[in-house]
Each structure stands twice: as structure tokens, then as C-alpha cells.
Design brief:
It is built from 15 helices and 41 strands. By secondary structure, the chain is of the alpha+beta class. It has five domains: about 5-120, Tetratricopeptide repeat domain (Serine Threonine Protein Phosphatase 5, Tetratricopeptide repeat), CATH 1.25.40.10; about 130-405, Neuraminidase (6 Propeller), CATH 2.120.10.30; about 415-485 and about 495-500, Immunoglobulin-like, CATH 2.60.40.1120; about 500-660, 60s Ribosomal Protein L30, Chain: A, CATH 3.30.1330; about 660-775, OmpA-like domain (60s Ribosomal Protein L30, Chain: A). Strands 8, 9, 10, 11 and 12 form a five-stranded antiparallel sheet that branches. β39 (about 705-710), α14 and β40 (about 745) form a beta-alpha-beta unit. The chain starts with 6 loop residues before the first helix and ends with a strand.
Length: about 775
């Protein structure tokens, strides 16, 4: 049995010989080799150590030092392994018959370097807890290559258990062929018994999981090809798609991804525009070694894939199991190159846009990696959990699936939810478009599940995204997701209810942007407004009202004008794009219809919004609105509409000039100063004070009390002096321009002190100004 390498069968005989002849170190040595060959280095090590006292044996068996070195290495006794590797290498160097040795000196030198590298990595282990995922998922057979859904509710993996499709064994290793299995995690977080995915996905030969798209609708698998002798001679990547609740027949991916060689694994970006795969295709000249490398292709505009790029971090050894993280920049993979501590190790590299380059790969270290094969890694979207394949002491059947948990998070966002009809609550298969609002580039297009309405999206950090949920016959719904580059992981769970396109339906435009206190559309608004344009232009006889809302931070009258000006800006954009102006109306709502509390920053942000409403779909309805007495409703071409587009602040000033003063209320007129300045008015303030003089001459019985404010964040005693001096400057200006002193009341120092005490450190609307309180009419 030993000579024909059937080590499992040889073990019982050698065990009996060791029992019968305990002094014979040769039997211990050969039994140790058997255990080493079947992957039990700890048992082998005990026997090798017992046999090491026999110098004749260690001299005669020239591989002895190698076997004990490897056993120590695999048992993670790196320091102890190095001297045995060196002793073995010394024998090779000194020997005149190099062919007598099974290993070369350069290869042994690499193993020494791996041990030294392991000793360094042990000094800085990762702060993670690694556990076997358990015997619900893992079996007494090899289980590996996990892929998980974005919400971690579903796991698919590869197994060589005895329930494989066809029930046949691979003649190359006498193990059952690979099949794909799926397990679902219940609401309590417990994984349920796996199920074979059936003949739609699995065949009688090798079928293995390699990648699941971010939306969970595309499963990529490896499938082997068998020759007439039953031998696997190559394998390629296939794709199956989820339609309703079932999967389609897997289809082979075209060139340039697949070739006449071996493509065993792959990963696709969350936006499905970048594709990584492993292949052992030739790299150029015939003298180059044939090994697995990782390649990358990009999606072309015509839907084809670009020419594969052999990534720069590949080594002359084997690279496999790529996983491109949903953060859009980090690639994990396995390599058995020189920087491995033994077998395949897990590495990561990061792509930097500004440098257009991948970073030097980094071994992710202990406790992820061991001297055995650690491979096929996938991360949870939040970066807290890692699923990967490894063979460890607590494995149930050789390769098992393990999970590592840490406290770190990923800088990205995940949006998970369901899409329903707002009237019927029935699920909708809607299109979900993710767009970079700055560049206008579509980052990804997805579909919600037809049966459940479920969707899941991964959104990288560092950009401002529009997420639009759209379906024919409905108003589109939009969300804005902006994640700073270094922000913590964010999860948005939101069920979306689409409103049918009919009279009375309305929707908020969440990706329309204005600068603070302005009514000019920012360029980032183009993505959303172009989508609204595309929706409206397909409809006949429709009439649309665009309405602006504000929070309650500014005065009511100011909000009234600002909200209508912003509505006019949107209407005008759509008219300029080619929509008939007669279908539009612009309405102002100011702060009077909040959808959230104005007490919080988040609430005020939601209240500052613009929405559109389908007024009707009747051909002759325009005249009804054109003759409306509602002064808050404007038609394009109205004098006020045009004036708002030119300068809404002038419209506001004109409104205020026409508005009668109210007793014990502040006038909208205000004098502003530059920080620290008390004697000199700004040019704008001089203009507004001249307008105040005209206003006071119109209301000759009106008396005003001056209310001065200081600068923010300066000492109170200095601020008191500044505020008093500013009041004197404004008082002098008004007297000089004809206002009688009997109509102006200067505050006392105690009153100014009280005013400053009431001012908050964040109220920029009052800072550096003098206001006017009406005390008499």
C-alpha cells in the first residue's frame, strides 16, 4: 500500500507493527509519513520525533528532515521547523546526486522564508474571532467556496457530499463530484439545513459556486468539462439568473472571459461593470509557466467585455478565489506565492483611482491564514464578518466553511427593501437605477424581485448617488445617498411604495439641489430632472404642479418667496428641455406643510423639498388653472414667474415694501456689518436702510426700537461694546436721512446685554446685524 501511495490503507498495518515492535523507529517513520500524506501533521510529528533518535534512520532516509520540517510547519511551530528545513537543504547542497531528492534547494528556501514571514505576522494578529460555521452547513465531506447575499440571509456553497447530483465520484481523487447547495438563515440568525440546488444548476460532474451578484439575482458557477475517459480536462464560468423564485439553466459566459483553458473562479463588482476571473491560459511565450492568474475585464458600452488584463500582483505561483468587495476598491484573493505562510493564504490589494494602480498585496495574517489552504473569501457588506474556506483542527470533513467576526466596518452603504404598489400593497418588479449625480454616470441597474418586491444594493463611499425606483405606469421614486469616503458602514432599510401615474398622485424629487438661500439649480439636479422630463414627455394632456417647501429657519415671508422661486426654476428647466409650458404650474408652500419635525437637522433637511403633482389628465383642464384665484399658483410667463427667475430676493424686497408693518414684530429690513466693524455699513445695508427711510415715510406713525447683535464666538464684554456701537451707527444714519429722533428708540446697555444673551452661537441670521422692532404705529 505504501509503495502505491494508498496511505489510508497502509496505516492499520504500520500501527500494528509499531505496537508489536515499539523499538523499531523505521515503522514509526513510515507510519508518520502515512499520517503526513493524509493531512494529519500533528500525529505525524509525534512519530517523527520518536524516530529522530535513530541517526542511522535519519541518515538513510534523506527525506526525513523534510517530513519533520513540514510537519512542524503545518503544526504552526515555525521556529522549530526552520532548522530541519536548513538541514535538509544542506544535504541537497552537499549531495552529488541532486535527483535523489524530491525537492530543490530554492523551494526549501521559500519554505524557510514562509516560516520567517509567519513569525513576523504572528506579532500583529488581526482582532477577529474565527469559528467553524457549524455542522448544519459543514458535513463530513469537503464544504467550501461560500457566497452570501447582501443581507446575509442566504448562503450558497460547494460540497462534495454523497447527495451530489448523479452520485458519481471523480476518478482523479475518488471523491464525489462538486455540487452547489443553498442555505437560508431564519429571523433568529440560524442557518437552516442546506438543499441541493437541483439539476437546473447542478450536473453529474463538477459544479461549484464562485460568485453571487450584489442584488442576489445572478449566480456564477464553475462547471467542469469531462473527456470520453471521464477525466476533467478543463472548466469554465457559467451564469444562472433568478427569475421569480427559480433559477434559469446556467449559460456559459462568452470569450474573452472563458477560453480553451481553465477558469475556476470569478468575482463581479457591485455595479456589475468590472469582472475578475482566474485562468491558467498562456501568458505569452511558451517558456512562461502555466499557472492560475487573476484577470480583469471592464464592461464596454455595447455590453461586451474588454480585453482581459493580467493584474500586476500575480506571481509565478497560483492566484485564485478573487473577491471584489462592494466598497468598489478592495480586492481579496488567495495565493500560494512566496508571501504565503504555507499553502494558499488570503491577501488583499486596494485600487486607488488617483494613481490608477493596485497597492502591493498584503497578507491579511493571523488568525485568517494557516499553513494549510485558506481560500475563497467573501465579506459581509458591513465589513464585520468574513466567510472563507479552510482546513483546521475542528473541521468536520477536511475543507470547511469558517466565519471571522470583527468590530471593524466598511466605508460604504447598503440599501435593502421591497417595492410595492401603494394602492394594492402587491409586490412590483421595478427597475432600480443608481447614478452618480455629479458625473451622470449610471453605476448600476437592478430589478426588484417579481414575487416579493425585494431588492438589495451595494453603494460605495465617496460619491453622491441618486437611487431611482421606476416602473411603467407609476411615478418614479427617488432617494439620495451620499457617503463620505471615510464614513462608517451605513444600512438603509426602506420599503418603497410606487404611486400610479394618475390625477392626484405626487412624488418628492429627492435629487434636486439648491445652494443655501438660493433658487438656482445645481448641476447635480440634472440626473433627476432629466428623468422627470423623460416621464412627462410620454404623457398626453397631463398637467403638472411643481411645489416648493422650506423648513422654518427663515421668516415666513422669505420662505414663501424662496419656495416658489425654486419651483419656478424646475419648471423652467423642463420647459427649456422641450416640454410645453402650458402644462406647468409653480406653487409655493413655504414651511407650512412639514413632513418631519423642524426641531432636528435631519427633519429640516427633509422639509426643504420640491415635489411634483399630477393635477389631471384632461385636455381642457388648463383653462381651469389659468383662471385660478390662488395667488400661490403661478403660470410660466406670469410677470412674477419671470421676476422670480431673475432675482427672487428683489421680489421678496418688493413684497416687503408693500407689506404693512405689524406691532411688536420685526421688520424684514436689517443692517449688516462686517465682522468686528462697528462704524462702516456694507453697501447692501446702506441700500436697505435707504429703503427703510422710504418705508418709514410711508408709515409716518411707526416707531422703531433698534435691536443690535454682536459677532459670534467672541468675549461677551467686547461683544457688548460692538453691539452698542453698531446701534449708534445705524441711529446716526437714519437721523442723517431725515428720520426724527422721536421715532427711534435706542436700547439701554442692560437691554443690549439681554439681547446678546438670547443670541445663540449658531444663529448666523442675526450675527453682525441691527434689526428693527415695531413699537408703535
Amino acid at each position: 500500500y505504501f509503495r502505491v501511495e494508498e496511505y489510508d490503507d497502509a496505516i492499520p498495518y504500520y500501527e500494528q507493527l509499531v505496537t508489536d515492535y515499539p523499538e523499531n523507529e523505521n515503522y514509526k517513520y513510515y507510519l508518520g509519513v502515512c499520517y503526513y500524506k493524509i493531512g494529519k501533521p500533528e500525529k505525524a510529528l509525534e512519530l517523527f520525533k520518536a524516530a529522530s533518535n535513530n541517526s542511522d534512520l535519519t541518515t538513510k532516509n534523506i527525506e526525513f528532515d523534510y517530513y519533520i520540517a513540514r510537519s512542524l510547519h503545518l503544526a504552526q511551530q515555525y521556529q522549530e521547523a526552520i532548522p530541519y528545513y536548513k538541514a535538509y537543504m544542506d544535504k541537497i547542497t552537499a549531495s552529488t546526486d541532486k535527483d535523489a531528492f524530491k525537492h530543490t534547494a530554492p523551494k526549501i528556501q521559500i519554505e524557510i522564508e514562509r516560516c520567517q514571514h509567519a513569525l513576523e505576522l504572528q506579532k500583529t494578529p488581526a482582532a477577529v474571532q474565527i469559528v467553524n460555521i457549524g455542522n448544519v452547513i459543514n458535513s463530513t465531506y469537503p464544504d467550501y467556496m461560500p457566497v452570501i447575499s447582501l443581507d446575509e440571509k442566504e448562503m450558497m456553497f460547494t460540497s462534495r457530499r454523497n447527495t451530489t447530483t448523479g452520485g458519481q465520484k471523480d476518478p482523479n481523487d475518488l471523491m464525489f463530484y462538486e455540487d452547489v447547495y443553498v442555505s437560508v438563515r431564519n429571523d433568529s440568525g440560524v442557518w437552516q439545513n442546506p438543499k441541493n440546488m437541483g439539476t437546473v444548476v447542478n450536473t453529474p460532474t463538477h459544479d461549484a459556486t464562485v460568485c453571487l451578484s450584489a442584488d442576489g439575482k445572478q449566480l456564477y458557477i464553475y462547471r467542469s468539462e469531462i473527456n470520453r475517459l471521464g477525466e476533467t480536462f478543463r472548466g469554465n464560468i457559467y451564469k444562472t439568473q433568478k427569475m421569480d423564485s427559480s433559477w434559469t439553466l446556467a449559460q456559459k459566459l462568452p470569450a474573452p472571459i472563458n477560453s480553451d483553458f481553465w477558469e475556476p473562479s470569478t468575482s463581479i463588482s457591485a455595479q456589475e461593470k468590472t469582472f475578475f476571473f482566474t485562468s491558467d491560459r498562456p501568458k505569452g511565450t511558451a517558456t512562461q509557466p502555466k499557472d492560475r492568474d487573476i484577470y480583469m475585464v471592464k464592461l464596454n458600452k455595447d455590453g461586451s467585455w474588454s480585453t482581459p488584463i493580467n493584474l500586476p500582483f500575480n506571481t509565478p505561483y497560483e492566484e485564485d478565489g478573487p473577491f471584489f468587495h462592494p466598497d468598489g476598491k478592495t480586492l481579496y484573493f488567495a495565493s500560494n506565492g512566496p508571501k504565503s505562510i504555507g499553502g494558499f493564504d488570503l491577501f488583499k490589494t486596494t485600487y486607488t483611482d488617483s494613481k490608477n494602480a493596485w497597492s502591493e498585496p498584503e497578507n491579511i495574517g493571523f488568525p485568517y491564514n494557516t499553513p494549510n489552504d485558506d481560500i475563497y473569501i467573501v465579506w459581509s457588506a458591513d465589513g464585520r464578518r468574513v466567510y472563507f474556506s479552510s482546513a483546521r483542527d475542528d473541521s468536520y470533513g477536511g475543507k470547511d466553511i469558517y466565519i471571522a467576526t470583527s468590530n471593524t466596518t466598511t466605508s460604504m452603504a447598503v440599501m435593502i427593501g421591497n417595492v410595492y404598489d401603494i394602492a394594492t400593497n402587491k409586490p412590483i418588479e421595478a427597475e432600480i437605477i443608481v447614478t452618480d449625480v455629479v458625473t451622470g454616470e449610471v453605476a448600476g441597474i437592478y430589478l426588484s424581485d417579481k414575487t416579493t418586491g425585494k431588492f438589495s444594493l451595494a453603494i460605495p463611499s465617496g460619491k453622491n448617488y441618486s437611487v431611482v425606483i421606476d416602473e411603467d405606469g407609476y411615478l418614479f421614486h427617488s432617494e439620495n445617498i451620499k457617503i463620505p469616503r471615510l464614513a462608517d458602514f451605513q444600512e438603509y432599510r426602506k420599503d418603497v411604495f410606487l404611486t400610479p401615474f394618475k390625477a392626484g398622485s405626487r412624488e418628492i424629487l429627492k435629487n434636486v439641489f439648491f445652494d443655501t438661500d438660493k433658487a438656482i439649480l445645481k448641476p447635480e439636479s440634472k440626473v433627476e430632472l432629466d428623468r422627470l422630463f423623460a416621464l412627462i414627455k410620454t404623457k398626453k394632456n397631463v398637467h403638472i404642479m411643481v411645489a416648493g417647501h422650506t423648513d422654518d429657519r427663515a421668516p415666513h415671508d422669505y420662505n414663501y418667496v424662496l419656495s416658489q422661486a425654486r419651483a419656478c426654476a424646475i419648471v423652467n428647466y423642463l420647459i427649456d428641455k422641450g416640454i410645453d409650458s402650458s402644462i406647468f404650474f409653480a406653487k409655493r408652500y413655504d414651511e407650512t406643510e412639514p413632513i418631519e419635525s423642524n426641531a432636528t437637522t435631519e427633519g429640516r433637511l427633509l422639509n426643504r423639498r420640491v415635489e411634483y403633482t399630477i393635477l389631471d389628465m384632461e385636455d381642457d383642464a388648463h383653462n381651469t388653472y389659468a383662471h385660478s384665484t390662488d395667488i400661490s399658483l403661478l403660470l410660466p410667463g406670469d410677470l412674477r414667474y419671470n421676476d422670480l427667475l431673475k432675482d427672487f430676493k428683489e421680489v421678496f424686497a418688493r413684497d416687503m415694501d408693500l407689506k404693512a408693518p405689524e406691532l411688536n414684530k420685526m421688520l424684514y429690513y436689517k443692517a449688516n456689518f462686517i465682522s468686528g466693524v462697528t462704524k462702516e455699513l456694507t453697501e447692501y445695508s446702506s441700500t436697505r436702510l435707504n429703503a427703510l427711510v422710504d418705508y418709514m415715510n410711508q408709515y409716518k406713525g411707526m416707531k422703531l426700537k433698534l435691536i443690535p447683535h454682536g459677532d459670534l464666538n467672541i468675549p461677551a464684554d467686547k461683544n457688548l461694546l460692538i453691539a452698542n456701537e453698531r446701534a449708534k451707527t445705524v441711529y446716526a444714519f437714519l437721523i442723517k436721512n431725515g428720520i426724527k429722533s422721536t421715532r427711534l428708540i435706542m436700547p439701554t446697555s442692560l437691554e443690549v446685554k439681554a439681547i446678546l444673551g438670547d443670541d445663540t452661537a449658531t444663529d448666523f441670521t442675526k450675527s453682525k446685524s441691527v434689526e428693527f422692532l415695531v413699537t408703535d404705529l
